[in-house]
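TASK: fixed-backbone design
INPUT:
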């Protein structure tokens, strides 16, 4: 098998940063041509450029810069179906005995040629009503009303795929995440997700978008900035680092080219994940700063060489890039707060270096309580300590209860992904909450109706009821980065009968008139059907669901 060429020790597996939630899921069952231009890149272009009649740009003084004109954003989508209407289904059967290695350009092309990336539209799935005890839900009252409608967008993991801190050779059919065939298209996939959300909003207004964390892949400033620029609609984004690569010569025809993001039409709020604050989602940034911006690949590491067709794996050296500077804690949150409207980040969160804060949905009784569950000391699992609870989380919960708020908690990690910081890359941290501790904390507060999470890359919905409490729903949304490449529409209703409902509807990312996003989808499906990525779709009772809970 091709994957047998991997000679890494088994323990390196957890460098991938986002393992499955409770236990590792069972493995699920275009030829790139290129030339290289010698230029440093990786940042967004100046918003003050304009275009001349000759097809070059003018700076803010009117001088012809000789640069190509700024690209135009894609047009709005004219409506998008939800998975209630139809679902994207891989056409090729799942490979049970992987023979081809998608990291090798020729074998990746062969997989595409053999149809591993193809899909078709399958039937939609109805919304399944679920109550805490499994009984039939009551009839809505005469004045049932929508409280809020928003989107949960999790695990985009935009990656600088040429970073010297990568470990691409770790990836194999049993250990997913160190490499993705679609990783080079991460910016285009995220832009397609934004375009999809805007179409949902145009059809029926959304109040906001809440992230699920792991927005970047390896705590690099350029990855974070690409993500911010895409959601905030910068004039142009160039998701490339080191040398200015152009795999397919010309503008706008490969994922290393500049493009104009569409930008979200609604507010969005930040949630930190382990990949946002840790190198490869596992290792604290201290001691790795020079390697990140240098040319030598970290010892034993491996990255992509886009000076060669298809971006094959190699072990360096790379072209150094200061844009790869590592960020975490205060430096990360300052970068986020400095973009757009600040995306919920408060001065207190910046000072603490932890993205824990409250955000009220305007004109509603709903309060989002964002909790930073990433272990800044290392390790992929979530970390919440007694000090976090006493210093920040409990005071925010107490304030929400005193003000009569309906509360949805948002973290990257689910309760079953919490640990003590002792995973690979970390050390045990005193006072860490375990699963039962966290669930008991939220269960103390009757205003908490749901806990939204990411991290596991798999849809899930479970009712959590610590002893002596009313309980709440814990909901995980799958990853944009991996199959099934879905986000989730969330609607909160007061049913006017003593019950609240939280309706979650899975939504495929739309790629209409977007060839690069369509390429990304084919590569993402290939990753799954070829046996190199597990199935994150969950079950029908994890995807399109209406979750009933007694009103506080």
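OUTPUT:
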């Amino acid at each position: 098998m091709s994957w047998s060429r991997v000679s890494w020790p088994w323990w390196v597996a957890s460098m991938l940063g986002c393992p499955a939630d409770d236990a590792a899921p069972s493995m699920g069952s275009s030829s790139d041509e290129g030339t290289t231009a010698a230029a440093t890149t990786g940042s967004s272009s100046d918003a003050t450029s304009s275009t001349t009649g000759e097809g070059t740009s003018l700076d803010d003084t009117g001088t012809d810069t000789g640069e190509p004109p700024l690209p135009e954003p894609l047009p709005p989508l004219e409506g998008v179906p939800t998975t209630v209407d139809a679902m994207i289904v891989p056409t090729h059967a799942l490979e049970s005995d992987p023979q081809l290695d998608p990291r090798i350009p020729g074998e990746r092309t062969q997989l595409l040629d053999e149809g591993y990336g193809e899909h078709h539209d399958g039937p939609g799935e109805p919304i399944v009503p679920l109550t805490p005890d499994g009984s039939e839900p009551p009839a809505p009252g005469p004045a049932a009303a929508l409280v809020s409608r928003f989107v949960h967008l999790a695990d985009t993991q935009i990656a600088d795929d040429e970073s010297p801190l990568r470990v691409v050779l770790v990836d194999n059919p049993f250990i997913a995440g160190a490499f993705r065939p679609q990783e080079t298209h991460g910016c285009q996939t995220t832009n397609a997700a934004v375009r999809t959300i805007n179409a949902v909003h145009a059809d029926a207004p959304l109040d906001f978008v809440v992230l699920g964390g792991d927005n970047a892949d390896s705590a690099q400033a350029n990855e974070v900035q690409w993500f911010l620029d895409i959601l905030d609609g910068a004039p142009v984004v160039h998701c490339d680092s080191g040398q200015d690569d152009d795999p397919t010569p010309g503008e706008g025809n490969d994922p290393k080219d500049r493009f104009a993001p569409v930008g979200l039409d609604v507010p969005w709020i930040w949630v930190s994940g382990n990949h946002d604050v840790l190198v490869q989602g596992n290792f604290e940034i201290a001691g790795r700063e020079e390697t990140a911006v240098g040319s030598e690949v970290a010892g034993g590491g491996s990255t992509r060489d886009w000076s060669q067709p298809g971006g094959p794996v190699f072990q360096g050296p790379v072209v150094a890039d200061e844009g790869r500077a590592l960020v975490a804690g205060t430096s990360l949150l300052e970068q986020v707060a400095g973009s757009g409207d600040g995306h919920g980040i408060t001065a207190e969160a910046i000072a603490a270096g932890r993205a824990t804060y409250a955000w009220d949905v305007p004109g509603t009784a709903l309060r989002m309580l964002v909790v930073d569950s990433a272990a800044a000391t290392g390790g992929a699992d979530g970390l919440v300590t007694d000090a976090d609870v006493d210093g920040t989380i409990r005071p925010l919960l107490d304030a929400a209860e005193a003000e009569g708020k309906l509360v949805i908690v948002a973290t990257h990690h689910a309760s079953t992904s919490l640990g003590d910081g002792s995973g690979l890359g970390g050390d045990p941290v005193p006072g860490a909450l375990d699963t039962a501790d966290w669930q008991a904390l939220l269960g103390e507060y009757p205003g908490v109706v749901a806990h939204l999470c990411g991290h596991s890359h798999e849809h899930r919905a479970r009712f959590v009821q610590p002893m002596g409490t009313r309980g709440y729903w814990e909901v995980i949304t799958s990853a944009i980065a991996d199959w099934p490449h879905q986000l989730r529409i969330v609607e909160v209703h007061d049913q006017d009968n003593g019950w609240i409902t939280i309706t979650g509807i899975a939504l495929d990312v739309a790629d209409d008139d977007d060839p690069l996003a369509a390429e990304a989808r084919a590569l993402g499906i290939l990753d799954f059907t070829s046996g190199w990525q597990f199935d994150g779709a969950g079950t029908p009772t994890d995807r399109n669901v209406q979750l009933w809970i007694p009103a506080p």
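COMMENT: The chain has ten helices and 21 strands.
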